[in-house]
Design a protein that fits this description.
By secondary structure, the protein is of the alpha+beta class. About 20% of the residues lie in helices and about 45% in strands.
Length: about 375
Amino acid sequence: MKNYGDYTLFKGTALNCGKAISGLSKRDIGLIGIKADGGYIYFKAKSKDNQKIIAFFDEICYTYQIIGESGFFRRLRLFFKRKGLVAGVLIVAILFGLINSRLNDIKISGLKTVEYSAVEEILLAQGIKKGVSTRKIDKKHLEYLITSSIDGVAFASIRVSGMTLFINIYEELPPPDIVDMTDDVPLLAKKDGIVTHVIVFSGTPLVKPGDPVVAGETLVAPVENSGGVPVGVRAVGEVFAKVYYSGNAVFLENQVVLSRTGKTKTLTEVEIFGLPIGKKPSPPFALYDEETRTQYSAGPAPIKTVTRKYYELTASIVKRSFLQEFESLIKRAEANAKSKIPDGAVILDGWYRIKENADGNGGRLVEYYYEAEERIS
């Protein structure tokens, strides 16, 4: 039996740890809580990946040891050993039956003009509230009720994950003020994506859910069949699709760091009536920090004095640790990707990957991807 909920704690030598970690990443094996301490590295991985990890470590002759296991399923197995298989099976059946099948939370997203209470009334009328069995929730019927009963809702997407009910509301666009419906204008895609929903008010749809489309592609053709005769119309509708966004963070093992040497020099510039007095001094150092202070004096002639203090800098190369910066790199890449997602889009999934030798000199690129659903028409 695969123990998808269990984790194994590994301890390895710092020697060749970079090769070991990067090799596991290339094999799509997720590592958790990577840290270095006292010449060793520690990390957790899902127990289902143990055989792959051990086989890879043996292949590269990497010194390691398994120092522990954790996870809910492991604790259950230990309990079964003490209390017997029959009691264990009964307990698991009761545990999952009572806990995982009960609704604990309801999350509604996508509301702009539609009131939250309008959706809540439908849920209460159907007996859907915290504590109800999730098996009794008819998702398709609930989608139909929300779409048909609430004005301004184009469609609803409903799913149950664990003990949470997720309801995504997609509201209709307000009708255009003045539109010439006889003008045969097609409905075009504004972005690349994979179609999820197609709503046509006029025209002939050329795409369906599951179809990939590119920006500029015709989604709805400006023609309708009237008594067997094609008639030109303005294509009007709403097309939603899965759109993908990415962001990245670069790790360079050798980084140039600037630091102050301790040498400083202060130079002063004077202006009267906006005209400089004397030659403007040049910075005294090739690399420097600068602090500037400006003062004005009133009198027969306005005088402006600018004092610049220069700090000499020196450049040095510092070797950085990928393991120590791994978590911050992921967060930076994720934030970069998330900043590109427009308002109103619903995030469906997110993941990251690592590219080795991204700069040709051993650098690494952490890329984060988001899958979001949004209107592309």
